[in-house]
């Protein structure tokens, strides 16, 4: 029998509903996987096996109670409020998201003993899905670029990326079928690409940022990690501010899409293996029938990178002033220097940057005209770097700046045997269509992830 920890979110949910195994068995399988790999990967900041198994048993009890209602139809096994749900599924949660009664350490020793009294609203949404938090995944310091202790499960000498380091690594190696992260620059897309999983941020405003450590309130966006586009869409659908924003079931487009292939203004940063992978991905999409038009963004977007940095560091510096005043010595030099840079940004420059952000967002909407359904571009400069860096987020910056939905799918490997991917970017507010385009692209790639090696045992 295929090991339960290898199952994706949707597969596990549907098989749980059919009674093929229990939530307790699934959770126990994940816990054993963590016990085997955590000493090397170090993806978890906080985890309590006893608590997780207790929550799994409660989910099983609810399912048994539903069956006792008398229906023999598998679709009626769960209560109406749980159909199409994630009932009984364990999920990882990035440790900058507040959890009531559980430590939230923000990747910093400053918050080592911080235990919130209330959970972030997005975790209330997670609970409504029937899923439960398996544990808190490692985040980089204040969700910035200082490397965390987590290692890339494909090669322990390499970074999983940041700042959602633990979430990406945990999903990649089967510790958990899905996880929640956040992105201010490239903190969902980049680690997902480095770890060979799907990373998806629905776009600004789709998921509440309340109860999350604020770094840049204008730019911060929650996102998710999973092993398929459909699973990422399912998890994200439960986290949105209201039901129906993202469909519970994402199907690939029935017809081949029309997309824009974009090197972006930072194409010169792409390493040769990433360039070759992008060319190969374009060829695969065209072979499947997609119309791929190669274009460049207007030169106005060249200023987008500086605009993003001004907004991000201005807001981060002001959000962190109280913490720095009392605990400045505990902040690493790299982060301290960035926040000091933010302190030096004038109010007038910040307001100008906000205005340019609005202009670029409007311009991007026009760039994606009615003939094209999405942009495709590299998600990273190349394979995951070594542990001294979390990698360059340059290929994610513009999409975080404009707040549009973006997703990365794994498509192949570089010369060091580390994953490479393809980023797909959609129009603001068109999350479902972007997911459908991404699912179509995913089906043409044939990528085999870390768990496609036939691990057995439960």
Give me some keywords for this one.
single chain; 458 residues; alpha/beta; Amidase signature (AS) enzymes; 2 domains; eleven-stranded mixed β-sheet; globular
Structure description:
The chain is α/β, with parallel strands linked by helices and 458 residues long. The protein has two domains: 4-299 and 361-443, Amidase signature (AS) domain (Amidase signature (AS) enzymes), CATH 3.90.1300.10; 302-354, no CATH class. Helix content is 38%, strand content 13%. The protein has 14 helices and eleven strands. Strands 1-3-2-4-6-5-10-11-9-7-8 form an eleven-stranded mixed β-sheet, with helices on both faces. Strand 10 and strand 11 (419-425) form a beta hairpin. Helix 9 crosses helix 11, helix 9 crosses helix 12 (347-367) and helix 9 (304-319) crosses helix 13 (394-402). The longest helix is centred in the last third of the chain and has 21 residues, at 347-367. The radius of gyration is 21 Å and the shape is globular. The relative contact order is 0.14. The mean pLDDT is 94.
CATH architecture of the largest domain: Alpha-Beta Complex
Task: Enumerate the strands of the largest sheet in spatial order, edge to edge or round the barrel.
Answer: 1-3-2-4-6-5-10-11-9-7-8
Number of strands: 11
- The span between the termini is 8 Å
Radius of gyration based on Cα positions = 21 Å
Specify the structural class: alpha/beta
Q: How many separate domains?
A: 2
Low-confidence stretches: none
Name of the level-1 CATH class of the largest domain: Alpha Beta
Helix fraction, binned, reads 25-40%
CATH superfamily heading of the largest domain: Amidase signature (AS) domain
Strand content: 5-15%
Helix-strand topology string: HHEHEHEHEHEEHEHEHHHHEHEEH
Mean pLDDT comes to: 94
